[in-house]
Design goal:
Structural class: mainly alpha
Mean pLDDT: 88
CATH architecture: Up-down Bundle
Shape: globular
Number of domains: 1
Number of helices: 21
Low-confidence stretches: none
Distance between the termini: 33 Å
CATH topology: Growth Hormone, Chain: A
Length: about 450
């Protein structure tokens, strides 16, 4: 390898120090799935008008995306277990590249189903990346800083979210009238179809730039040495790996782990639902906006998401992560309830502000839940099942879209997201009790 690993692996799989280049390169994967997620929020608005979809049907973009994670997470974990985290990253990058390339024929075929297939393919690649990178980030250094390390890596995710939305704003959306106004102004069905096909061609542009970055990352990972970051076999031990059935039985008896799965489901569902409908809400409460202008609220939301992570990292270095997240969840729920019933355009600002409270959710739940797996033979599959909880992003937005369709009010549907915040708060209340018990025994680490 051209770039060597300077760290020494310990018997438990963690390292004696953080290999800075390897950790930074791994962290650069996080904005790549952030960019894909950010573009999904753009595509939902684009596809709704071009394909004349209901709010629930437009949310199928997220169903395809997070459904891909759900389907492939365990197969990905088994492949990673038989190979290495690095191989998982390389497979993920390769499939991500293929998924982006599929947008070329999709923009020509111009069917909703084909675009959903492209998004599903990208999600398969991202499932390999997240199954590898989330666990790998927590392992690339001393055990006592594993959760903090994952939070630092996850700080890069909203940067990708921002870049994805900015690319969508300028490469997919245009200035002038809104898409719906342009479609309504088409003189006949043929002209409307031609306009729709022209708009769909724009969806190809951001994926060209992503392809270039992915190829560069793939090459860098090929030439960089990474540690295995797996526990070594102790003397007299018969095996260091467990079968799928044995692993699932172990995990099913681990109540703190199962509660983490539920919390992760709610968290990803909450985040995805809020992001999916932010632009649509802006267009609803302020009809003078077009899609490009409404995207500014999405950009502001992602900026808040990033800003909110930074003080959270500081606070969790000083105080219990569970206590910090309890406060975050309470404030987040209040903001979303306020957004659901606030008059006029102030509602969108409550939604934007709620992003300040979302940042630390995923990495903290992931890190805390992964720590409940004391036998590291089950870690790869346990991490994969945690990634499968991301299917909340496939389900909650559709539920919120359905509520919007039934009530005839997208604004009122944000109650669904507010309730998710409260559910996550309950998880952290119980997590705080567990942390206090461990602290009394001197077992808690950051």
């Amino acid at each position: 390898m051209l770039i060597k690993n300077p760290a020494k692996q310990l018997p438990d799989g963690y390292l004696d120090k953080i290999p800075l280049f390897q950790f930074l390169l791994l962290s650069l994967l996080f904005p790549m799935w952030g960019a894909a997620a950010g573009l999904n929020d753009i595509l939902i608005t684009q596809f709704k008008h071009v394909f004349a979809l209901s709010d629930a049907a437009s949310a199928f973009v997220q169903s395809a995306f997070y459904g891909g994670y759900f389907v492939i997470a365990i197969p990905a974990s088994r492949i990673i277990r038989r190979t290495s985290y690095k191989v998982g990253v390389l497979i993920g990058l390769a499939v991500y590249i293929i998924g982006c390339a599929l947008f070329f024929p999709a923009s020509t075929l111009a069917t909703y189903g084909m675009f959903l297939f492209c998004i599903f393919a990208i999600a398969i690649g991202l499932s390999f990346l997240e199954t590898s990178a989330n666990t790998y980030s927590s392992m690339l250094g001393p055990k006592q800083s594993s959760t903090l390390r994952l939070n630092i890596s996850q700080t890069f995710t909203p940067i990708g979210n921002l870049l994805g939305v900015i690319m969508g704003k300028y490469l997919i959306f245009s200035s002038g009238d809104s898409i719906q106004a342009q479609m309504d102004a088409a003189p006949d069905p043929a002209a409307k179809k031609a306009l729709g096909e022209q708009l769909l061609q724009n969806t190809l542009l951001p994926y060209k730039y992503i392809l270039v970055v992915l190829i560069c990352l793939f090459i860098l990972f090929l030439i960089t040495e990474y540690p295995k970051a797996r526990p070594t076999q102790e003397a007299g031990a018969e095996k260091t790996q467990a079968g799928l059935g044995e692993t699932l039985r172990y995990l099913s008896r681990n109540k703190p782990y199962l509660s983490g799965i539920v919390a992760q489901f709610l968290y990803v569902g909450l985040q995805t639902a809020v992001w999916s409908f932010t632009i649509r809400l802006a267009l609803t409460v302020d009809p003078t906006l077009n899609e490009r202008s409404a995207t500014n609220y999405m950009i502001a939301g992602f900026a808040c998401f990033l800003i909110g992570k930074l003080p959270a990292n500081f606070l969790m270095a000083k105080f219990s992560a569970a206590r910090v997240l309890i406060v975050y969840c309470i404030i987040g729920a209040i903001l979303l309830f306020a957004a659901s019933f606030a008059p006029s355009s102030i509602a969108i600002w409550f939604v934007v502000a709620s992003n300040l409270l979302m940042g630390p959710g995923w990495p903290t739940i992931f890190g805390k839940t992964l720590d409940t797996i004391e036998d590291k033979r089950y870690q790869e599959t346990g991490g994969a099942v945690l990634v499968m909880a991301i299917v909340g992003g496939a389900i909650v937005p559709v539920i919120q879209g359905w509520v919007s369709d039934q009530l005839g009010s997208l604004q009122r549907s944000f109650v669904v997201s507010a309730l998710c915040f409260l559910g996550i708060m309950v998880y952290f209340v119980f997590q705080n009790r567990l942390d206090r018990a461990k602290e009394a025994r001197g077992e808690v680490h950051a």
